[in-house]
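Entries read sequence, tokenised fold; example below:

***
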Amino acid sequence: MVLAKILLLVVALGFGYWLWRHRAGRHRQATTPPTGTAAKPPQPQPMARCTHCDVHMPRADMVSGHLGLYCSAAHRQAHGDQAPR
């Protein structure tokens, strides 16, 4: 009877140790990005200043007019500029 209790205790401790190592391994894998699949950092974009309000923003997001670049079509109209042809 004593031998069965000791055997059961050893099996329970072994299972607990296995479970602890298994969960620690999953946590480590979840926090470490896989090698070779890391996302590239975004590249810097050229910035420009709005002719109307002087706000700086990425040039690709700006609206162009005959007199310059604007942060929105509303500012292009407020500045008295027309859309480019």
User: Anything to note?
Assistant: Residues 1-31 form one domain.
